[in-house]
Give the backbone structure.
Amino acid sequence: MKTWFVSLAALLLGAFLFAPSAFAQKKEKDVVQIKGGKSEIGKVTAEDFAGVSIEIKAGQTKVIPWAEVASIDYNNPSGLNEALEALNSGKLDDAFTQFEALKNGAGKTRPVLQQHALYNRALVLQRQGKLDEAAAGYKELFAAFPRGRYLRMAGENWINALLTKGDANAAESAVATINLAAQGATGVEADLAMLKGRVSESKKGWAEARAAYEAAEKAAAAGSSIAQEAQLGRARCLIGEGKRAEAETILNDLKKSGSSNVVLAGAWNALGELLTEDGKSKRNTEVLLDALYAHLRGVVQYQPLPGEPTVEYERALFDASVVCKYISEVESNGDKKRTYKARSEENLARLKREFPNSRFLPK
């Protein structure tokens, strides 16, 4: 009996020591963290516009919509995490080197990681002011992953890079390329309409842009972030058409109900620009200060998340610089006049430093 007990104990100890633990098995697989605390464990096989596909077991794959995904922990991410950390820390040269290495590991790098590398490499180039190279990078991304997870953000950034160069015709061509790439994707209509609206708005084609934004809002789910972005675009077009009161109603609603930093910053920026016009024409410091506080929300409170388009953040920095300049011109107190002039220069210098080729910088 004693021998049997010892043998059984040794067997159980061996099983404990040498069998893969639940934690080890989990670490050998990808983990999709779902909002609400749950998770799915398996192998991520694709990340498309509709969601992330994870193979739970052989023959069983589940697609999880992006709206439900909190994060993804990849097994053997091949340096992706370090590259993203460098990007988010502003170490752009280091980030580019790492994303370039990940991109060039085609055949060795998993497709899901390759997609991250292509997108973020182009994003780094854009942040560095290398707009032609960034545009080429986004084009390469759409060729490799035409209906991928970055369809909207990459589309926005690609268009922004071209508009920053002042090439609206190239931006229109990019939208056509994206439309072609997105054929077959489900639920992409609102996003494509938004991109069309962006380009038309940049050319001050207010009626055409507003029609595109209205189409986007109609195609999007009511109350969704993209529906609110469409409302924001529509409000800007109304301002362009001289319909300020109608625009203000939309903007005041969005500043309270906005579901994303992009929407909130955009609403406050648009309202700030209207206040700036009023304060400048009336030479009213208090109104100009209200305008400044509106723009500073986009600088401090509603910054874009990593990887998101930065247009509203850039706009907020530039507009804050402009308002400070106007305050310095209106202010009668010498010390305050110098203070606001310095703040104007600081905000403009920050914009130049962070976005050397921003479309808002004086040419």
